[in-house]
Amino acid sequence: NLSMKDKILQHFLQSKGEPISGQQLADELGISRTAIWKHLQTLQEEGYKFITIKKKGYQLVAAPDRVDAAKISSFLKTKRFGYSIHYFEEIDSTQSYAQKLARQGAEDGTVIIAEEQTGGKGRMQRIWHSAKGKGIWMTVIIRPNILPHQAPQLTLVAAVSVVMAMKSLYQNFTPEIKWPNDILINGKKCAGILTEMLAEMDRVDGLLIGIGINTNHELDDFPEDIQSIATSIAIEEKKKVDRAELVAEILKNLEHFTDEYVENGFTSIKTLWEEHSGTIGKRIKASTIRETIEGQAIGITDEGVLEILLDDGQVKKVYSADIEI
Ligand code: BT5
Fold first, then answer.
1. Any ligand 1 atom below 6 A from CB of 247
2. Which domains are seen in the chain, by residue range?
3. Are 100 and 192 in contact (CB under 8 A)?
4. With a 6 A CB cut-off, is 181 part of the ligand 1 pocket?
5. Residue 16 — very low, low, confident or very high, per pLDDT cuts 50/70/90?
6. Does residue 126 line the site of ligand 1, with CB under 6 A?
7. Is the pLDDT of residue 1 over 80?
8. Terminal-to-terminal C-alpha distance of the chain
9. Residue 17 DSSP code
10. Ligand 1 atom nearest 211 alpha carbon
């Protein structure tokens, strides 16, 4: 699905800094050397830098810090997910755009990703701050064969996918899932997930898995009102994040765990979720639309519902709430 320009770029990204002969590239892609040169000009205008090395060809010496299709593709290890990528410098919300694409029949694993969101959405009309170039702001359209009541479990599948991608790429911190959709590092929010559904009464047409991750923020890149509750991977890892690499790792996990869920049910996902959860076993306060419940979080059910043990010994099930630990 990549454009010719992106295909050329991908060759350079995969060559790991080695020069590539213009003739060889032209032959491989079936276009003229002049066409190659023109695409390189366009890439230069976008911020990529090439130098010419005598008798060897072109060498990529600098790339802009972007999460575009070619960059993500160069890390991709999936069967289906991430082969259709819609990239934007700026968008209101990847979630709204995904909704349009999904209605038009976008394939399973289509990705919408942007450098900046001007109207990023959290749950219940809340704002999701999406600073330019600092994070991963993406929606993945998935089309698993499930029933509408199963949809909330896919939020947990997504949380497991994100947290395990972080664990495999970074060593200096331990991310924890806070039920149902937050990922915290040292008690501060680093990522949030928003799942929306396109469905009829008895059939799911598609799910929009919105994933927001603070990757390269310094503390003052956050608006003041969330500086005490938010963090980024770069702050915790003490190193800048290659966003495209993390996106590819998340897509790999999301594909794998969604397939696992559809084939074998929720059991293995539930175990993984509980292993990475910072909620289970803790005393919490859960605010639902109707009431506030205090007690000990004892686990999630096979439906992905949170169970809270109240002080009077009663066990309450919570389907949707905000949790304070
Ligand atoms: C979420 O909502 O955590 C879901 C966030 C989903 C964002 C993604 S980005 C790609 C896709 N496109 C979208 O438009 N959205 C999705 P919720 O649990 O309601 O949390 C929202 C609350 O988190 C806000 O009220 C703030 O307190 C806080 N918050 C906002 N931006 C934040 C950030 N960048 N980092 C940490 N906390 C933030």
1. no
2. 4-62 (1.10.10.10), 69-275 (3.30.930.10), 283-324 (2.30.30.100)
3. no
4. yes
5. confident
6. yes
7. no
8. 45
9. T
10. 8
